[in-house]
Amino acid sequence: MLELSRLTFYDSTAVGLLAWTRQRVEDTATGRLLLVGIPHGLRHLLDQTGLLPRFELRDSVGQAVAELLVSE
């Protein structure tokens, strides 16, 4: 889980890093990457690159933690 609500700067490098991280997690048998509190601008960048549907987005840390605990 990555909590991103305080992220104030993001560019193509950040998008690339998120894509790389998602791929690394996806390559594991049981890994999941949840993005929490994603800023509107970053959401827009991910949407424009076609990557947004490949991420699991959650509104709050509590929601993400509860979901991860249930899935164990």
What does it look like?
The protein is mainly alpha-helical. Helix content is 49%, strand content 11%. The chain contains 3 helices and 3 strands. It starts with a strand and ends with a helix. The relative contact order is 0.22. The model has no long low-confidence stretch (mean pLDDT 92).
Enumerate how many helices there are, as a single number: 3
Please state the CA-atom Rg, rounded to the nearest Å: 12 Å
Strand order of the largest sheet: 1-2-3
Question: If you average the pLDDT, what whole number results?
Answer: 92
Helix content: 40-55%
Distance between the termini: 14 Å
Could you give a short account of the major beta sheet?
Answer: 3 strands, parallel
Number of DSSP-assigned strands: 3
Globally, the shape reads globular
H-E string = EHEHEH
- Can you tell me the residue ranges where pLDDT is under 50 for at least 5 consecutive residues? none
Supply the key terms.
72 residues, mainly alpha, 3-stranded parallel β-sheet, 49% helix, globular
Sum this structure up briefly.
By secondary structure, this protein is mainly alpha-helical. 49% of the residues lie in helices and 11% in strands.
Give the arrangement of secondary structure elements:
Elements: E1 2-3, H1 12-26, E2 34-36, H2 40-48, E3 56-58, H3 61-71
